[in-house]
Amino acid sequence: EVYFKNLSKQKQKEVMEKNGNNHKLRVCVATCNRADYSKLAPIMFGIKAEPQFFELDVVVLGSHLIDDYGNTYRMIEQDDFDIHTRLHTIVRGEDEAAMVESVGLALVKLPDVLNRLKPDIMIVHGDRFDALALATSAALMNIRILHIEGGEVSGTIDDSIRHAITKLAHYHVCCTRSAEQHLIAMCEDHDRILLAGCPSYDKLLSAKNKDYMSIIRMWLGEDVKTRDYIVALQHPVTTDIKHSIKMFELTLDALISFNKRTLVLFPNVDAGDKEMVRVMRKKGIEHHPNFRAVKHVPFDQFIQLVAHAGCMIGNSSCGVREVGAFGTPVINLGTRQTGRETGENVLHVRDADTQDKILHALQLQFGKQYPCSKIYGDGNAVPRILKFLKSIDLKEPLQKKFCFPPVKDNISQDIDHILETQSALAVDLGGTNLRVAIVSMKGEIVKKYTQLNPKTYEDRLELILKMCVEAASEAVNVNCRILGVGISTGGRVNPREGIVLHSTKLIQEWSSVDLRTPISDALHLPVWVDNDGNCAALAERKFGHGKGIENFVTLITGTGIGGGIIHQHELIHGSSFCAAELGHIVVSLDGPECLCGSQGCIEAYASGIALQREAKKLHDEDRLLVEGMSMKKEEVVSAAHLIQAAKLGNTKADSILRTAGTALGLGVVNILHTMNPSLVILSGVLASHYVNAVKDVINRQALSSVKTVDVVVSNLADPALLGAASLVLDYTTRRIY
């Protein structure tokens, strides 16, 4: 770790020497509207905080300077930034021609500004027509361009503008892995692409716990409660203005019918925006008691409003990007964001002929709370971007190079990013210990934490959160990008809701417990929960003997007996999440009593608890210890003593183990006759002691058609943690939203 940090410092030092020891990188940040400023401001603060490396010039243009849109340049001044130049570039009008004229006006005015500033690099954000003018001017004047949020996909003319800016830009900062792959597919230089995440997430992920009620009351009224209001933000779609106006009318009708307090923000400066404002006034929105119509809300306050809203509705990219950080329900209307990656909090209404479809969507979404999503960032974008800026060598040729196919797999620009690994936080909630680990995509346990499992629900949940927060913080230091949290626990689990329905007797006070919500809220990460037997099967499917096997069964032989069933490559949960309770297959009608209350279960014969019970009986009868064995007076009798005694020739102990192996083997035969898997994997501390006995029972008792089944001992060192990690890694890398 120290080596790589020193290597990074050395590289920065070399770049400074190449650029001239006293030369600071002169950065021009141009902002056009309230939306792009929310993304650029965190970068601007970062640049301003390091005056030894950077000089910052701020250029303001576009709708920032229009009174109808709130004169939003004032929030830049309030953030204590010196505005070097103000350019009035918006041509008033209501059609596409006005947008074209605005681009032309910006192109006329920008050369003089850039000639005076002479920046080393210009930072341009996004996909607005103003940004296209900025990128065109800078490219033609041989000024390096850093483009923020390139490679993304949406459903309007913005797509074309975004990709055009990509081709003009020299460096790229993207927010998602998919966007990064798109840039590579567009033949951009691999070494000039940085996967940093969205800069606004650096502020979002630290914002939710701040005081918010005063902000809600200021914008929506004194009587409004959290989760009981709506935020609406809808823009015209410039490629289909008439349809987007109609959609806006239907949206307002649905909101009026839904009868909840609603904050409506004015649309962006685009062709059709004036018509949308006329629709608002025609329907009396500005004077309706349930509505508050505003031109602009400062970003810090807007964050709090959407974080605690009952729902957000509209077609703003903010709904599908930033709002996911809070798990707030979103209704995305129309085609403006088609192609964007979204979390499960987003419900799409692609087309609406009447208000009923939108109204029904409001009824479905309003008031829900979803897991927090970090698709677009992890809160560490700005440090990555500043490091990237420092690595730019101004003596390198300005002319862009395109990397035409074949595309390399390795796409990061320095060793730190090459080593950064997609990973999961894995939690194993055991009867004795609570374990948390950082697990890489390849199944490597990068870091592991272990604590004794507290006895009460409150203490247990508090410890889980504390250990997960500690592990998530450490993940940054070990170059791991955490995709989510997977939890393995005993008992019956509803994986769809992340709720432990009924736990085992080993973990008291752990029934009907929602694990997903508090952990997701605390970490701003998606969370998955499943039974430990199911997790063991998932671990085998991804990392063990089950890799590539269509149908197999995993049996855990430890303190209890559990398992998981993979059928046609998918895990079986059952109608009431009770599938694969393999330890409770009955193999004798008059066998020993099981912890479940029944008799003759496999677990009553072959589990660690069952063997310990039999060992204690032998010890009490003074028939356990044989020559070569000794026990301290205070030592607790365990299954290990029974196994040791059998190995040293204790016939009674050997008979107990053979009975246990036979019971397990009969259970496996029942599984073979029911599921007909091609592979049975024995996992857990007792697996190696049982494998031969199980094979013998299969040869004696099974139908000839299933005797060819392979029975193997798991080679995974920690299936519970690896299985919990598999919940995350399988889901996040294969799901299509």
TrEMBL record:
Coiled coil: none annotated. An N-acyl-D-mannosamine binds at R492, T504, D532, E581, H584, E603. Keywords: Allosteric enzyme, ATP-binding, Cytoplasm, Hydrolase, Kinase, Metal-binding, Multifunctional enzyme, Nucleotide-binding, Phosphoprotein, Transferase, Zinc. The keyword Membrane does not apply. It comes from the Eukaryota. Zn(2+) binds at H584, C594, C596, C601. It catalyses: an N-acyl-D-mannosamine + ATP = an N-acyl-D-mannosamine 6-phosphate + ADP + H(+); UDP-N-acetyl-alpha-D-glucosamine + H2O = aldehydo-N-acetyl-D-mannosamine + UDP + H(+). Its main location: cytoplasm. One of its GO terms (cellular component) is cytosol. Signal peptide: none annotated. Pathway: Amino-sugar metabolism; N-acetylneuraminate biosynthesis. Residues 53-390 form the UDP-N-acetylglucosamine 2-epimerase domain. It is found in: Cytoplasm, Cytosol. The active site is at D532. GO terms for molecular function: ATP binding; hydrolase activity, hydrolyzing O-glycosyl compounds; metal ion binding; N-acylmannosamine kinase activity; UDP-N-acetylglucosamine 2-epimerase activity. The keyword Zinc applies. Transmembrane segments: none annotated. Pfam families: Epimerase_2, ROK. GO terms for biological process: UDP-N-acetylglucosamine metabolic process. Its EC number is 2.7.1.60, 3.2.1.183. In the C-terminal section; belongs to the ROK (NagC/XylR) family. Homodimer. Homotetramer. Homohexamer. The hexameric form exhibits both enzyme activities, whereas the dimeric form only catalyzes the phosphorylation of N-acyl-D-mannosamine. This is Bifunctional UDP-N-acetylglucosamine 2-epimerase/N-acetylmannosamine kinase. The gene is Gne.
